[in-house]
Amino acid sequence: MLHYIITITLGIVATLSGVVTFYALRRINAYENIILNISNTIESIKLQLKVIDDKGTFESDDEVGFFFTELKQLGKDLENLFETEVEGYEEETKEK
């Protein structure tokens, strides 16, 4: 009798743990996709800023230059906010 109670209890706990893990992983994947979208948007904005000011005309103007440099600094700050993946990291961990 005690054996059945323990087995049922452990089965319920294992099932609940599996369900909680499944939903947690779904949320993590959703948040990761959001972060990747934001990172891609920042990269495209940086490329567009480089294309717009390829001759440096906006940056040299006093009024527009202030806004433009602040916008570039904001892009750098946002870029540093996200972690960058290192391709050699996996190889280093395999060697150890």
Tally the helices: what do you get? 4
Shape: rod-shaped
Compute the separation of the termini in Å: 50 Å
Number of distinct beta strands: 0
Q: What is the H/E string?
A: HHHH
Radius of gyration: 25 Å
Helix content: over 70%
Which parts are unreliable, with pLDDT below 50 for 5 consecutive residues or more? Answer: none
Average pLDDT: 80
Structural class: mainly alpha
The profile of the biggest β sheet is: none
What is the count of distinct domains? 1
Strand content: under 5%
Short description:
86% of the residues lie in helices and 0% in strands.
Q: What is the topology?
A:
Blueprint: H1 2-52, H2 57-60, H3 62-81, H4 88-95
List keywords for this structure.
96 residues; mainly alpha; 4 helices
What does this protein look like?
The protein is mostly helical and 96 residues long. The protein has four helices and no strands. The chain is rod-shaped. The mean pLDDT is 80.
